[in-house]
Amino acid sequence: MNILHFFRIRMLVVLLSSTLALVSPLAHALSTADIAPLAGDDFDAKAAAIDHLIATGDELSLTILKALGDDSVVATAAGQVLLQQGDNVQDPLTGKSFPAPADAQPITLRSKVAGAINVLQLSSSDRATRAAAISALLNSPDPSLKTRIDAARSKETDPLLKKRLDTLWAMTALRDPDPNTRLEAVKLVAARGELEMRELLRPLVAKKPDGSYNESDPAVRAVAQQGLSRLDSIQTRNELIGNIFAGLSLGSVLLLAALGLAITYGLIGVINMAHGEFLMVGAYATYVVQNWVQKMAPGWFDWYPLLAVPVAFVVAALAGILLERLVLRHLYGRPLETLLTTFGVSLLMMQATRTIFGAQNVQVSNPSWMSGGVTVMQNLTLPYNRITILAFSMFVVAIAWVVLNKTRLGLFVRAVTQNRRMAACVGIKTGQIDSYAFAFGAGIAGLGGCALSQIGNVGPDLGQSYIIDSFMAVVLGGVGQLAGTVIGSFGLGLISKGIEPFWGAVLAKIAVLVLIVLFIQKRPQGIFALKGRSAEV
Amino acid sequence: MTGTNPKAHLAETPVEKPSAELAAETDLQIGGSGGDAGGTLLDVDSANMPGSPTEGMVSTPEARTAGFALGLPARPALLSGRAWLALLVLCVVVGIGVPVCALVLPDTNPLHLSAYAMTLVGKLMCYALAALALDLVWGYCGVLSLGHGLFFALGGYAMGMYLMREIGHEGKYQSDLPDFMVFLDWHSLPWYWRGTEHLAYALLLVVLAPAVVAWVFGFFTFRSRVKGVYLSIITQAMTFAAMLLFFRNETGFGGNNGFTDFKRIAGFPITHPGTRTVLFLLTFAVLVVSFLGARAIVTSKLGRVVTAIRDGETRLMFLGFSPLSYKLFIWTLSAVLCGIAGALYVPQVGIINPGEMAPVNSIEMAIWVAVGGRGTLIGPIIGAIAVNGAKSFLTANFAEYWLFFLGAIFLLVPLLMPQGIVGLIATVFSRKEKRE
Known about the structure:
A: 20 helices; B: two-stranded antiparallel ribbon
């Protein structure tokens, strides 16, 4: 922003030089007294000096103006104004160069100069130039420019620009001695509905140290107060919407992590501490696919996620099947030891990743259609990648729902979840179902990892930060129920993000934990309890 | 609760039993509502006293003399004769050997105990004490806590507060306040630091802080009958949340850096070999006493009920016991032991920071117990020393393989030696006996 501003000023100064050169015959030479105020502290005097420079408009004043625009003017403590030239300084009036005095301080008047240039452009005959000048001035309204804006306002013919000039005028007229002008100005300012306007209105309703109001007229005060509260409510609404979106976004991430966990936990009653590492596997699979696509088919880079999603699923699912077949199968009926074992597996997987890919985070870039965001309201931009993940998580839930409720495998999984022995009695190969379901859960985690790679860092520790939270989501929602996990995840996300603005992230986490512990006092089985006799044992 | 189970249990019990259980249950609930495990114990006794409906039950004469009127086997001895002897020898060797080796022998003597060795072994003993505490809840009560690191750290922080106050004006800023508070521009001690300059109060905090946290947490989770892996994860979340809290500077416990740079304890310079020796012996003594105390508890009637909770909590409840107060007692006791371990750890190691509360630390504690053999009390002590000894060795020599090694222990111990080292030794011995 600042840099842009800076270049614009330079450009305008150059433009100005050509215009001013033509109208300079009236100008008279500059004296020390004309530029001395630039070194002073009085802002109005500085402004007057610049106005004078603009009015003079000869070569020398233009040089000084340009230098001011470049921030290369320095002032000594004695009040001498000098132009910086590398290590040396030049006296603009005498043209003498000498080494910079130790007490030389730069004069930063860039915005002032910019304002001056913009004001000059208000009387340009080109509509686009005028519009640009008005926009620039609206961004940093300067009351000292009021008279010129007044003049421009009376001359403006374009209705759209006139309206904006009115606002601009209002912003500069807030301190006008005439209460009626002030009243009109305050009304105009408040009507803009822009949140930045609060900074202009706030001083009007504030009190001076001696207890009297800054603004003497009660009518103006009332209008200002009204405008302030309206803007405040807009701000609150925007923040609320922003928070809800952040909560939903966190919820969708938790959901992707928790969905697989809920399936495996419901089925074999084991919390897979390595579940977070399946997320990591999915994220690294995405990374590998990304690199591969970049190398083999750079033109298709934007669509690498389409390939990464199935790859992440398959790789994580294979890892899941391996874990189930080689380890967990031998520990059935010993849930606590299984917990420890899966933790060991998670350590091994993390360390193996460090050995293969290095301990540093790897770079997974968004495809171009996922970067950027949509600006819904002032101060509120929703990033595309988060929106995509929200949609993706819904897609994954839909798949999980179809698999669990519409397929034979899903029927078996639900049967085993509800009553393992009875399911075995009616001929379901429970061992096989365990493997498949575990692979499915791990695969979903892989999908989650693929999604996470688009919004966060991909490193060996990726999974660690999600395992506790996603388990909390499972606890909150209830085990073995898809709807429970969805509600639990989004609920947890919304609660966390709802508390965060007030207490900060750390206390929010603690508060959420306390809430969950209190919640399971009331409903130990979560929001959606699994019905059935075996549910509690 | 399922509808079928109670009936099944009732059908098995003799006719006169239900009334007894009813009596016991009402008593238990009165005791249980106060959460006072001691009181509940008495209630159990009263149910077994002459005149109570259980009197008519069959019981062997030796069981009666042993105080168990329920026909159960007699209470086992605290330790076998050989074990007593071994313990006595160990105490004598440590009690005499360590001071001699550390203080009397010159540096050049190969038997001289260096400060490093003393700190290392002292640290291992603290870990062993923590593992012993965890074994009480996991091995005997079936509650796998993945949050004992929190209690360890709480004890450590309570001790650390005292040690910070003992620095006095010798800190970097020469202020009355601990350095980190000066750094944060605080002008007075927060209320919870008040009184920590007294060692006795700090020792009280060492016991109280973990006890209160454990009791409150346990009360709410056990009451709603959260158990198994559910409970494990919640304990882990608890220590994780506490870690986040202690990482904040505003919490008033030194934030990231925690407490360090201690100067003296009870007036003695903390790095002096004499002080180190005393701390070492103190840790050893606490470990021995805790071991004996834990052994006394698990062989008592209370211990039997606790073990029954592990093996069949639902069944125990149908028998008329309320598991809440038993669990709470063991859980809180275990937390206190863990806190004491932390308090002994801090002056020897010289630092305490929120990293001690990291969930990984707590999970590692569980693996010490698993490696040694849970439910054996001596196993966890062996396990803690073995695993941490291996850790010290590996991190010093093959740093990058330590996590592989740790992961492998986690993976292989439950698979291949579910009873741990102690179980392995026992199997080997029993095979030998069979052959003979």
